[in-house]
Amino acid sequence: MNKNNKPVIGLEVHVELSTNSKMFCGCKAFHFRVKPNTHTCPVCLGLPGALPVPNKKAVDWAIMIGLALNCKVSPKSKFDRKHYFYPDLPKGYQISQYDQPLCEGGFLETSEGKVKITRVHLEEDTGKLIHKKLDGSDVSLVDFNRCGVPLVEIVTEPDLRSAKQTKEFAQEIRRIIRSLGVSDCDMEKGSMRLEANMSWGLDLGYKVEIKNVNSFKFTEKAIEYDLARQKELLDKGKTPKQETRGWDEKQNITVSQRFKETAADYRYFPEPDIAPMTFTDKQIATLRKSIPELPDEIAKRLVKEFDLRVDYSQLISADSALQQYAEKVFKKGLEKKIKPNDLAGVIINQKIDIEKVSPDELVDLVFQKKTQKESDPSIVSGWVMEAIEQNSEAVTDYKNGKTNAISVIIGSVMKISSGKADPAAVRDLLIKKLA
Amino acid sequence: MAKKHTITPDEVRHIAGLANLDLTDKELKTYTAQLQDILGYIDILDNIDTNNVVPTYQTLDGTVNVFRQDKVTKSLSQKKALSQANKIHDGYFVTSNVFKKNITKTKDYEKTKSRNIDEHNAVLSKVSDNGSVAHKDLFVTEDIVTTAGSSVLEGFIPQYSSTIVNKMDKMGLKTKYKVNQDAWGHGGSGENSDYGATSNPWNKDYVPGGSSSGSAVVVAMGDVEVATGTDTCGSIRMPASYTNVVGIKPTYGALSRYGVIAFASSLDCPGFLARTVSKVKEVFNQVVDVDKYDGTSQSAKRSQKDSKPKTIGIPKEFFEEGIDSEVKEAVIKATEELKAKGYEIKEISLPHAKLGVAAYYIIAPTETSSNLARYDGIRFGKNRSAFGAEAKRRIMLGAFASSAGYVDKYYEKAARVRSLIISDFEKAFNPVDAIIAPVSPTPPFKIGEKVENPLELYLMDVYAAPASLAGLPALALPCGFTKSNLPIGMQIIGPRWSEQSLFNLGEEYQEITDWHDKKPL
Fold first, then answer.
1. Where are the domains of chain A?
2. Are B379 and A47 within 8 A, CB to CB?
3. Does any domain span residue B329?
4. Domain A377-434 has what CATH class?
5. CA distance, residue B444 to nearest chain A CA (Å)
6. Smallest Cβ distance to A41: which of B75, B140, B370?
7. A residues 266-285 near B, CB within 8 Å?
8. Which of B15, B60, B75 should we substitute to test contact with A (largest number of A Cβ atoms within 10 Å)?
9. Which residues of B are catalytic?
10. How far apart (Å, rounded) are the C-alpha atoms in residues B181 and B388?
11. How many Å lie between the alpha carbon of A325 and the closest alpha carbon of chain B?
């Protein structure tokens, strides 16, 4: 392999939308830890004769995601059928989008450069399979609660160049989508799923797909590991096998994934049961307006408005609830002359439960702590003794009857204690010590 | 002209894989030859220049943006969801492990028996003595066995009812029978039911026409006043014309498809059959409505104007080669009778209509191979080995026509030709208000006569296909008999949403003729 070859990584991100109902029927979309097959109906079970009708909110939300990722919204769009046979796909086809996705041609900046986004489209999620042994034979159990939940697919160009950048990009996607409030993007629960395609060059005739990894950290590790694995093979003059691999947390390696080969020919054709979609500039503008300030913009604004440290601003802007809370705290804090950075430090480092402590309470606590004077003799005496040592002249003056000289020593104690010492307690203690 | 494509058994095996069908060597051989034969015919589309033609995939009057609001509605109970499953465990559906090499149970299902409830094998099940309506077995009926005429759904008890059945039920039009049909709607003769062929009440040796064969026969026999049917490419009009009854294939989207088992989604039109135009009109006007569960029923143009045609077009291409002389004579005579009543009769041309069969036998199989993909034996019904020969043939044809490398040549090409046929009609409806044409090129034929040659049967759809591809309403009604006393029917085709106009013309024709009063012995 040429020494100049760099990793080429493309990412597919699937995000389940948190609409009330499913994509094409009125069943509840929520499916996490729900009794199996209790959120189904003729439509999402694929019963004979049932027909899909798309959920308006899911379409709007998918477009908002596209707009937030700097995509163009297609003036004309439609759904298509994607065919393959699998027990978790009840109709034998998935309603997806083929040649007219809702959004195309976006990008996102990362610290390692711009990443182009090919498309953002809408489809339906599949059911869930559990593989187990039942009465001595291997079976798959099927639960269709997840089947038909709206799923947005975001596809990038192969613009990513490292595992770290891939992780950063995916996290940025999550920050954006969370701030839109359209998905909880929880990797562990599967409401956000990443599939990375990668190789050491588009002309090398292979790519490896990393799939079913349930955290950003492991995705990064898996990509890093597998790129090294591929390089080792390439350096020996071998071509890595084109395959799908997963992450083995225990061994810290990627492993070839057991998955059933499905036909690569999806026989896409326009979904005849659903009317096409069109979007006017006005409709797109309305959706654009409904997009809240995005994390990146918020982070920049926080730095500008509150002189916040960059790392704090990024942490806070990633979570819209936290961000709203923090901004209230900062404003209150400024009234009492407390620096936003100090408050942000408290919120982040002390892991303040923002649902239990109100912004007012938090500011009051910090203010009290800041203004509370130390009067404990065991602590104050240390500062007093230091001050006595440093101010021998004033001590002599005081002992000689110049009682005013005590204020010089008190001032010194306040300086040594960074203002924390209670002046009354200091005075009492000094009078005692110098008596 | 493009070089003819030769289909190899390997290719057919690959297609069977895509379609998840396990074919025997014998089937493989048969389908290879038949696909070659059918696709060879379809190659006539290659001669048509469609470079500047936009493909048509739906006929919705340009309707766009049909959505539902994000509201939660009641789901099925777990018990009901699982009620039709092959195997369940602890609230889950059970299927053989997907990672295991599929050890296909090529268990041969017992040949499904004819029901023999009636002498013509038209009835699959009697639902209620008090009922007055027969439903084609593609109409899903809650708690009442619904089979689509296929062994795959033998014993299937649906968890819901179709919009039309629900509506008719509420209006007091209760179900009497579920009736026989060509399995899945595949067939024009009524011979393709897995529950045995239906026979023609006018002569038991002859086919009654299909696929709504049972619907036409129970109406012809006077067992019910009204029957539902579906027409994808003549499936209401053919049996109506073969049994001397009236049938309406409405505008695509006029009657809800929700709960009507899908054959070809962009073509399927539920409709009605009865003895008279007046009866068909009455029921149609009671039931016709937009349905929020059918996103293709929401055209803004769907209002029904009560008008009467003045000028009637006769498409010359429908009376050229291939038409039986008795059929031709009967239809021409009907137009002369109308002329005598003051209608202006004009010869028109539908130059692309003859391509309808070729386009249709790409579009419909492609959609049916997709619609029949859900029958996997997990949630309901038997597994895919229970499909009959015709269903397998159409699944294979459709999977082939939409597979990688062929989708442009076949599926997209057919969709472009569909646009040409639509524009033929648009031009024709400029000078004329309605078109009269034969339904079938021949009178009813003998049961078994054409079973060995699928292509020959497909070509019987030549006059039915154009209106179906264009999503137009067409009213079939009796217009004579052959010398051997077999019924002949004609169809009146109108612009979209012109059903009232067709009914008015049909009613007037039935006032001046008495063909519809004749009953089988």
1. 8-281, 293-371, 377-434
2. yes
3. yes
4. mainly alpha
5. 30
6. B75
7. 267-270, 272-278
8. B75
9. 136, 211, 235
10. 13
11. 29
B376–A87 CB contact, under 8 Å: yes
Does B252 reside within a domain?
yes
| A21:B99 CB<8 A | no
* Nearest-Cα residue of chain B relative to residue A279: B65
Residue-by-residue pLDDT tens, chain B, 521 positions: 445 678 999 999 999 999 999 999 999 999 999 999 999 999 999 999 999 999 999 999 999 999 999 999 999 999 999 999 999 999 999 998 876 655 444 444 455 566 678 999 999 999 999 999 999 999 999 999 999 999 999 999 999 999 999 999 999 999 999 999 999 999 999 999 999 999 999 999 999 999 999 999 999 999 999 999 999 999 999 999 999 999 999 999 999 999 999 999 999 999 999 999 999 999 999 999 999 999 999 999 998 778 889 999 999 999 998 999 999 999 999 999 999 999 999 999 999 999 999 999 999 999 999 999 999 999 999 999 999 999 999 999 999 999 988 999 999 999 999 999 999 999 999 989 999 999 999 999 999 999 888 899 999 999 999 999 999 999 999 999 999 999 999 999 999 999 999 999 999 999 999 999 999 98
Return the CATH number at B257: 3.90.1300.10
| Domain total of chain B | 1
Beta carbons of A139 and B94 less than 8 Å apart: yes
Interface test with A, best of B97, B137, B293, B302 (most A CBs within 10 A): B97
- Closest-CA residue to A167 (of A208, A118, A112): A112
Q: How many whole angstroms separate alpha carbon A160 and alpha carbon A198?
A: 9
- Look at residue B103 and tell me if it is in a domain: no
Residue B453 structural domain: 17-22+113-517
